[in-house]
Specification:
It is a single chain. The protein has 6 helices and 12 strands. The strands form 3 sheets. Strands 1, 4, 5, 6, 7, 8, 9 and 10 form an 8-stranded mixed β-sheet that branches. A two-stranded antiparallel sheet has the order 2-3. It has a single domain, classed as Rossmann fold (3-Layer(aba) Sandwich). The chain has helices at about 10-20, 25-45, 80-90, 135-145, 160-170, 200-205, and strands spanning about 5, 50-55, 60-65, 70-75, 95-100, 110-115, 125-130, 130, 150-160, 175-185, 185, 190-195. Helix 1 packs antiparallel against helix 2 (about 25-45) and helix 2 packs across helix 3 (about 80-90). With about 210 residues, it is of the alpha/beta class.
Length: about 210
């Protein structure tokens, strides 16, 4: 498994501002979208290309185009904030959604919504969720994506815990992880510490 923890100054700055409990909801959403764009840029660095030939206003030119279609998948609901940024760097990408929430007592993932293309075999799937905490939701989401035939999957998150990375590695060694930063630990409730709180609540102003 490839794990990339960003050391980009802009990502570090934006995540620090997102952590601040005084950051208003609209600012939190904007920062999440911007971090997603930066992480997405890094994650797409090794996408495969194919030769292309186009006619410019002056002459024919040889170039390169992406060889696979991209599908951005957000884990509802907080993943929507990351997909908002990802789709800006590649508007031609398709969007899909997986609804999973974590049972507060068992910490196990619970599925409630699935909507994406039937066949993902020849596509690059970029899965987005702000927090990689226990890793349960990410593993379940990737199980669903692989059941549709996906072979190339990239997981993007704002903050990861070592426990979540290890759990994801145990079940999906072929998935590449791109995280904005890695935090110290999980608390007894399975939340990342110091983290930034509940990303969904901070995006939408709920509690």
């Amino acid at each position: 498994m490839s794990v990339s923890i960003s050391n980009h100054p802009l990502i570090a700055d934006k995540i620090a501002r997102m952590r601040d409990y005084r950051t208003p909801n609209h600012e939190f959403r904007r920062l999440m979208s911007e971090v997603a764009m930066l992480l997405g840029y890094e994650a797409c660095h090794f996408l495969s290309l194919k030769d292309s030939r186009v006619k410019t206003p002056l002459a024919w030119a040889n170039g390169k185009r992406l060889s696979k279609e991209i599908v951005f998948v957000g884990i509802l609901r907080a993943g929507l904030g990351l997909v908002d940024g990802l789709i800006k760097i590649f508007p031609e990408g398709r969007m899909a959604h997986i609804g999973i929430y974590r049972d507060e007592e068992t910490l196990k993932p619970v599925k409630y919504y699935i909507r994406f293309p039937e066949n993902l075999k020849d596509k690059t799937v970029i899965l987005a969720d702000p927090m990689l905490a226990t890793g349960g939701s990410a593993v379940e989401a990737i199980n669903l994506i692989k059941s549709r035939g996906a072979k190339e999957i990239i997981f993007i998150c704002l903050i990861a815990a070592r426990e979540g990375i290890e759990h994801l590695k145990k079940y999906h060694k072929d998935v590449k992880i791109y995280a904005g930063c890695m935090d110290e630990k999980l608390n007894e409730s399975g939340y990342i510490v110091p983290g930034l709180g509940d990303a969904g609540d901070r995006m939408f102003g709920t509690n």
